[in-house]
Amino acid sequence: MTAMAERVYVVDDEPAVRKALGRLLRSAGIEVETFGSAEELLGALEREPAGCAIFDVAMPGLDGLALQEALVSRGIELPVVFLTGRGDIPMSVRAMKAGAFDFLTKPVDGGDLVAAVRRALEKGRSDLKKRREILALRRHLESLTPREREVLEGVVAGMLNKQIAGDLGISEKTVKVHRGRVMAKMAAGSLAELVHFAERVGIRRP
Question: Rounded CA gap, 165 and 65, in Å?
Fold first, then answer.
């Protein structure tokens, strides 16, 4: 599936608010898609959207906080800026604990909102890049044979080739061959990079 273009997903049940937010963000050169309810967004959003979101907190049906939780439960990661006219400290704390990027109270200054959105978009780009890097590394890891995986684990553990050979009951020369294949499959340019890649996908030093 082709990833969607970067944009801001605005969810607010008030048409006038959606229109105003859309106009404000488009005037700042930011692509926007608006929705009147949480259900509309959930029905339209692809698996790995790029960008960020602005959610109204108080909405009929799923409110903004419940929508954020629904996205998390589906494995959809978007930095979320919350807007509310009735915000309070417990609501803000709950939103932040759930991973909200920012929490602004209506009426919000246009400049402040655009600045918050730009920061959220930057975080979204960074997060998306990291997720794709991890996905690529996991695919590389899955391409290893069981023996190559054992050699990789030995390398990450800081073992010398002869130690890995003794542990696996194979020759040191064979370990060197396997290690070379592991380096190539993991697209690692150095031993340090190989260890770093392995640790990023959960293979850590004992």
Answer: 54
The rounded distance, in Å, linking the Cα atoms of 145 and 182 is: 9
**Of all residues in the chain, what percent are helix, strand and coil, respectively (each to 5)?**
55, 10, 35
What single DSSP character describes residue 3?
Answer: P
- State pTM to two decimals: 0.73
Place of tokens 């698996």: 47
pLDDT along the chain (206 residues), means of 10: 72 92 95 92 81 87 85 87 75 74 86 94 91 93 96 94 94 95 95 93 81
Closest CA to 1 of 34, 38, 40, 50: 50
Instruction: Give the domains, in start order, of the chain with CATH numbers.
Output: 7-132 (3.40.50.2300), 143-200 (1.10.10.10)
The Cα 140–Cα 186 span in angstroms is: 5
Closest CA to 117 of 106, 129, 101, 131: 101
